Amino acid sequence: MAIRVLDRIPVSPPPGSVPATTLPLTFFDASWLFTGPVERLFFFSYPHPTPHFLSHHLPPLLSSLSLSLRSFFPLAGRVDRPLSSDPPALSFSPSSHSLTLTLAESSADFDLLSGDSPRHFAELYSLVPQLPPSSGDDDGDGDGSIPLAAVQVTVFPSRGICVGLSVHHVACDDSSSMHFVRSWAAACRLGGAEPPATAPPFYDRGVIADPNGLCSKTLAEMRQLAANGPPPPPPEKPPLLIASFSLGRDWIEQLKQRVTAKAAENGLAIHSSTFVAACAFAWICLIKSQRGFADKKSAHLLFSVECRSRLNPPIPEEYFGNCLRPCFVEAKMADLVEKDGVLAAAMAIGRAIKGLENGVLEGAEGWMQKILSILPEGPMSVAGSPRFQVYGTDFGWGRPKKVDLPSIEKTPGTVSLAESSDEQGGVEIGLVLPKDEMDAFQSCFYDELKLF
């Protein structure tokens, strides 16, 4: 794909608006220290040539980004001391920190890249902003501080615009990053001259209680993993495709009703939701798209659960940072591959979520080891959620035509979930697979729909 970089622009909060600030990591943040960024692409139709964008829309896009960074300043900062014995922290220095916006132009087929059908992942990935290298990599000072965010805006002349955002997971979760995106988009719609009337982020780390020293224990585990050196490089991957599949509201409601009825029939308390239904369907299709699945005795599913409202006491929805815990699901393979496998999967997921009511932090000291223990089993994992309403993002050019989450490629077996772009109550499932597995997933997807 032909892509040309036009400029790289450092963007900071308005001068004098944010003092030098340090935010300690919590135990929710610490487990993401040596992972990578969450990458999201927003595609918008835009029927104007590049010069029109540069003169009419780039200035408010930049000024609104600066205004938004006044509230979301950690995204222009770094993580300090990730490898030292001192506790690492998010830091922002107005004299030395900024977020880089890469401005690019592409001659690729915008309609193909922003579609749902399988398309070449490598072409899409050229639209993803890359985080700058850690400071120890390029200037030799050895502190290894990690940049936290980057933006890329790619213009497809007279066809569309792609706004790409990469946010290192140690900075925040999807709830916080989408809070930032909504704030930036709202400021841009106002012309970039004033901040939007959106709720500001909440930074008080004191609301995350840690009486058992989970943060220091998690950091010790992460540093031990880092000390063991990087894992061996994975075998070379075949060319990958990225695609999206949509589940309609009527199908989702039908499965939710069946889960509720089955639970009542067995006297069980089950959590039934749109998320559960979509996860169950994706899980079954992904299992059946993989070779040798029938030889396994069990299957595993791993996803993150939002904890802001589940903590005791609850913390503000606007809390900026990570506030997620892993949820583990295991089911017998024999149950999942039967005709009612989707229902069996939904029941297993619903039971696991319901079990969190016993205490959302229960077993927290063992989360990391449990994750490491099931990774060899090839679990399906889930990124994103319909509740983030990514298709409500509007910078002044209308709703996105398409939203993708390319970072799911980094962890095999990961699917993304978002609300449907064209149907209230529907769900969009995204995934990255080699062609043969993508063909098998697609075939299974439509076969399973016929069973309902």
From TrEMBL:
Q: Any idea which UniProt keywords this protein has?
A: Acyltransferase, Transferase
Q: Which GO terms describe its molecular function?
A: acyltransferase activity, transferring groups other than amino-acyl groups
Listed InterPro entries:
CAT-like_dom_sf, Plant_metabolite_acyltrans
Is Acyltransferase one of the keywords? yes
What name has this protein been given in UniProt? Coumaroyl-CoA:anthocyanidin 3-O-glucoside-6''-O-coumaroyltransferase 1-like
Species whose genome carries this gene: Ananas comosus
